[in-house]
Amino acid sequence: MKGKTHAGIGAITFMSVCDKIPGGFTYIGILIVIIASLMPDIDHPKSIINKYILPFKNKKTKTIMYLGFALIVLWVNYLYTREAALNALGIVFIFVAISSHRNGLTHSLVGLIVFTFISGYLGEIYDVSFIAYYFMVGYGMHLTCDMMTKMGIPLFYPFKKKKYKFPFTYRVSSKKGNTFEDFLIIMGLAYAVYRLPAIL
Questions:
Q1: In the chain, beta strands by DSSP E
Q2: Which of 94, 107, 140, 176 has the fewest CB atoms within 10 Å of its CB?
Q3: What is the pLDDT of residue 181?
Q4: How far apart are CA 140 and CA 116, in angstroms?
Q5: CA 160 – CA 178 distance, rounded (Å)
Q6: Residue 142 CB: number of other CB atoms within 10 A?
């Protein structure tokens, strides 16, 4: 699924459930959900996030950059802070560096748990309440949506490398796939117009 579709579905899902999760609807919340909706694709060198991070959009650059990030985070944490969440972040960067798209940590339940844990820790440091709930909504919806594609996701990685998908799937970037994603976006915008007055 394309990045813009992930971001849109994450935002719409948040608007749908915001009155049922701690913190309710906030503008910071919807921003966090959108970022979390894009986060699993960080293992792809041409993803929306890497578009602003990587100087060259290829696998080699992604590997070198994220290994560099990992070394910096782990070294600074070892010297100064000794925080478990930063160690987890460094390890995640290593997995991102060595993972190919949809074949590793970022598209698994373990990735969801680790990233949510890190986001919750950062929320405590910077006093952003309920960030873990917002992050879980965005990240979880990304995984759910990718299970609708023919490629599927390694949901139980690293324990199982088998890819899981729903019975009815579509091929990303195909004509039918693009039409389906456009339809989802249009329906989502219509729902947002309907829902927004009730939550503001």
A1: none
A2: 176
A3: 93
A4: 10
A5: 30
A6: 28
Encode pLDDT of 96-147 as tens digits: 998 888 888 899 999 999 899 888 888 888 888 899 999 999 999 999 999 9
Q: For residue 143, which of 151, 174, 62, 48 has the smallest C-alpha distance? A: 151
Residue 21 has pLDDT above 80, yes or no: yes
Q: What are phi and psi of 149, to 5 degrees?
A: -95, 160
What does the alpha-carbon distance between residue 167 and residue 90 come to, in Å, rounded to a whole number?
Answer: 36
**pTM of the predicted model over 0.70:** yes
Which of 6-15, 37-46, 139-148, 191-200 has the weakest average pLDDT? 191-200
* Helix 3-17 and helix 131-146, axial crossing angle in degrees, nearest 10: 130
DSSP classification of residue 170: B
Phi, psi of 101 (to 5 degrees): -60, 125
Tokens of 45: 């060198």
Does residue 154 contact residue 102 with C-beta atoms inside 8 Å?
Answer: yes
